[in-house]
Design a protein that fits this description.
This protein is α/β, with parallel strands linked by helices. It has 28 helices and 25 strands. The protein starts with 8 loop residues before the first strand and ends in a 7-residue tail after the last helix.
Length: about 725
Amino acid sequence: MAVPDRLPLAVVIVTYSSGKVVEGCLRSLDAALADAGPARVVVVDNASADDTVERVRAVAPEAEVIQTGRNAGFAAGVNAGIAAADGCDVLVLNPDIRLAPGSVLLLRQALALPGTGIAAPRLTGETGTLHLSMRRRPTVPRALGEALLGGNRAGRIPALGELVVDPAAYDSPQVVDWVAGAAWMISRACLDALDPLDERYFLYSEETEYMLRAGEAGFAVRYEPRAVAVHLGGEQSTSSRLWALSSANRVRMHRERYGRPRGQLMRLAVGLNELVRAVARGGEGGTRHRAALRQLVPLREWPLLPEDSTPRPPTASPARTDGALRTAENPVHTTPSPGYVCFSAQDWWYHNRAHSDFQLMRSVAAHRKVLVVNSIGMRMPMPGRSTQVLRRVGRKLRSVAMLVRRPLRELPGFYVMSPLPLPFYGSPLARRVNALLVRAQVLAVSRALGLRHPVIMVTIPTAWDVVRPMRRRALVFNRSDRHSSFPESDRPTIEALERGLLERSDHVVYVSNALMGEESGVTGDRAHFLDHGVDTDHFRRRPESEQPADLRAIPGPRVGFFGALDGYLVDFDLLERIAVEIPGVSLVLIGDATVPMDRLTRHPNVHWLGFRPYERIPAYGSGFDVAIMPWLDNPWIRHSNPIKLKEYLALGLPVVSTDFQELANYADRVRIAADADLFLDAVRATLRDGGLQPADTIRGSVLGASWSSRAAQLMALAELSPGPR
């Protein structure tokens, strides 16, 4: 059997208190993946109350564990796993699945057939008993047929039954409307073409709805009987709550697809089915059917929140297990999905849009309405204290003149505003006036957009005065840097503002373990590490023919840097030493500069190209032979985690960097230099040998670090809070 020429594969397993079954699932993967090539394993855990995560890490230490921090539903777990698997086909498994040897290759072969978007195996019980997993499209006549004839009898007549019941049908590969979602492989093309699974269902019908959408979009759902999976399963048939949820979600899905009138007809048909079974079986035998009737009459718009959606330290989504939901007798009422207001440390209109707050909010905007508030600054630029004063004031005024805009056509729910600030933070009175002014502008725009009780994310500490009295769903402090270490800041004032956010935020997210550790005494269990992501689709290597002409005109080899050339970040003495002591290279610098560049550009092998838009940065970086991070040794850098590191790696570039704590996990891919002499030696060594790893290996190491997966973690964390306040 040949391995199809396909994209990489990721196996996504969604767990919820699955410690008793997940080990067997993970152990079955080695044989199941035989001859199919390597695969990433992503386990998404929905705040398990048992030792699920510990067992996963013990059995499969190479697995990536995503912990969502709440029991958010099976679809939410699958979506989080898919988000972490950019560029991969995805095999979705329940934790009680045991894949037979070689089954993954058979599914990959089925997925490679023309027009196929989803492939599913034959499901059996532990003794080999066939599980009836193939389904026809749900219709009202089929629901009525099942109510009057029973599921098995109705299934013999395609027009009257949804379930495919003929055992002989399960011996042949075929295209079906949908299959039971305990094990199914989805092509990357299908994933990219469709919206994510609908998380409103919590459990059941989410895979039905997704597979029907796939078929309608031209992606066939293919059943492959040679691939076999043992499904332990069975919770739905024994749990009244899960049975009732499954019945109610059948109606909800029909309502969403065909409108309320047809949804009501489906509700009557499903209700009749449950009523007939409740009467026929009586006593304890009819318990689950009576529970279904209680959910159907009256039918809530969407399922109740799970009992364990209250805050916990982050962990991810539920498998289908009993005890997952509150009953109608003890309800938890849902609240609408909140919008987001982000007080950024950057300005969308003139800073590099690769910054983490912009990237996170763009990914959040795929699911929620988002308002980004451009930076309100930390101090008024003043002559003698700040560089390029007139230019900085001018660009801020131009930004304010942009008012409120939707800058991304593909994200209609993503808004950017530039309030007019008065950044005189040294005076308590001026701070109060400025806070009132900015708050009034932000509240006016928020109300116009319908953002009444948003999640508020703050990246710049001067926003604390603004957001302190604002009503909100939750407050998240995005602790990306220690801003009080910024040379132009009023340090005592900024430190006080940072302290207020650290003490009063619902959650504090860090990209620096060093900074998180230093502040743990203040933040306690509200602190969470949220690593940077990278847009791997954007940061992919371009061939020389697609590289910019001004770069191609520069002779190689090229030692390159892209990003802000700030005097408090970049070691310009080190850059000059590269130019002087390695004269055979071209030093290529791309980015806006806050210091005079004459000292560098006077050297003939230094090429400063200035600012280039984010959209063109990967094409420039593709022409580097060595990518460098020549940072100064100061508190800002020691607590940093530069986004450009993952961008360099996504381009497959060999990297040389000065040392800082977050580099410890990259020592196998990055040459780390403790001083300037060692830095120069590392550049020379990289020019000779091409780097520590091949380009494909370097790029592959960050393929799972998507911004969408980071945003999913942020949303799971932020939306744990109890509600508006």
